[in-house]
Amino acid sequence: MTSEITLFVNPTAGRGRGAGAAQPAASALRAAGFSVRTVIGENADDALVRARAAVSEGTGALVAVGGDGLVNLALQAVAGTRTPLGVVAVGTGNDFARSLGLPVREPARAGALVAEALKGELIRSVDLGRIGGHWFGTVLASGFDSRVNDRGNRMRIPLGRFKYDLAIVAELAAFEPVPFRLTLDDGSVREIAATLVAVGNGTSYGGGMRICADADMSDGLFDITVVGECSRTTLLRVFPRVYKGTHLSHPVVSTYRAARVELATGDAAGVTGYADGEPVGPLPLVAECVPGAVRVLTG
User: Fold this and answer.
1) Which of 79, 172, 257, 283 lies in the 20 to 30 Å Cα band around 19?
2) pTM over cut 0.85
3) What letter does residue 104 receive in the DSSP assignment?
4) Whole-angstrom Cα distance, residue 136 to residue 222?
C-alpha cells in the first residue's frame, strides 16, 4: 500500500469545522509516517473529479473530512474499488460515522484511527445502497422528511438548522399521507398510505435519528421503516422516540427487510427521495443493497 494518503476536504462542513479539522487529521497521519495531500474542489462536481483522479492514481486511502454530504461524494469515488475510505466526521449529522462507531467531531482522534487502521490493515467491507449509478451509505428517505428537506432547501432565511425547524412546522400544518407502493425483491407489494418511508443501509439519519435502528451494514439487506398514516399529534409523539429507536414498536410503524426495493407513489406527484441527506430525484426510485461495496478504515 502506498504511503500517500488523500484528504478529501469540505471546508464549509459543520459551519466551518471542515477547514479546521483538516490540519489535526493531517498531522496525525504525518506523525504516523504517511505523506498527505489535500483535495478541495471548487464545487461538488469538481471535487468528485479530483477524488476519482486520486483513486485512479493509486492513493493509499481517500479520507473524507466533513459531513455526510462529503462522505456521500467520497463514496461515488471509492465504491467498488480497492481504495479504502477513511472518515473524519465533522459535519452536522455525521450519520455514516455514527453507524460504524467512528469518532464524531474529534478530528485528531479520527486521523489517528485512520493511521492505525492503515498500518494494521484494519479494514472493514460494508454494504452500500445504490440507486441507478448513485451510491449511498446510510438512509434513503421519502415522505414527510423529504418534504421538510425540499421546503428547507427553498428557504433563503434563516440560516442553519433553524430553517429546517421552521420547515417542519410548515409541513406539519400542510402534510397529508402519501399513497406509497413498495415492491420488494421477493415480488411482494405493499400499498400503504404512509407518513414516511426510510430505506436503511445504516441505522440513522438527521444527526442520530435511529429511523432504521436494527440495520446492519454487513448483512446484504436494507431495513425498511414505514410510518403509516397518523395524526399530527401521533407524529409529534412518535418522532422523539426515533432518537432511541423505540419507535419501531409503535402500532403505526411497520418494518421490512429486502435486498432491493422500489418506491413509488401512484398518482401522487412531486414526492422526492433523499439519500445521505442529498436529493436523488423524484419517485419512483429503485434501491438495491450491494454487499461489501466499500472498504472502510475502522481501527
Assistant:
1) 79
2) yes
3) B
4) 12
Q: Identify which of 22, 26, 73 has the alpha carbon closest to the alpha carbon of residue 52.
A: 73
pLDDT digits (tens, 9 = 90+) for 109-131: 999 999 999 999 899 999 999 99
Count of CB atoms situated within 10 Å of the CB of 56: 11
What is the predicted pLDDT for the residue at 177? 86
Q: Which domains does the chain have, with CATH numbers?
A: 4-121 (3.40.50.10330), 136-293 (2.60.200.40)
Nearest alpha-carbon partner for 225 in 216, 237, 214: 214
Please tell me the total number of residues recorded for the chain in this structure: 299
Distance from C-alpha of 222 to C-alpha of 220, rounded to nearest angstrom: 7
User: What is the pLDDT at residue 179?
Assistant: 93
Task: Report the pLDDT value the prediction gives residue 98, as an integer from 0 to 100.
Answer: 93
8 Å CB contact between 190 and 256: yes
Torsion angles phi and psi, residue 296, rounded to 5: -115, 135
Residue 131: all three cell numbers together? 440507486
Within the chain, residue ranges assigned H as helices are 13-31, 44-56, 68-78, 95-100, 107-120, 144-154, 162-174, 232-238
As given in the structure block, the three cell numbers for residue 159 are: 440560516
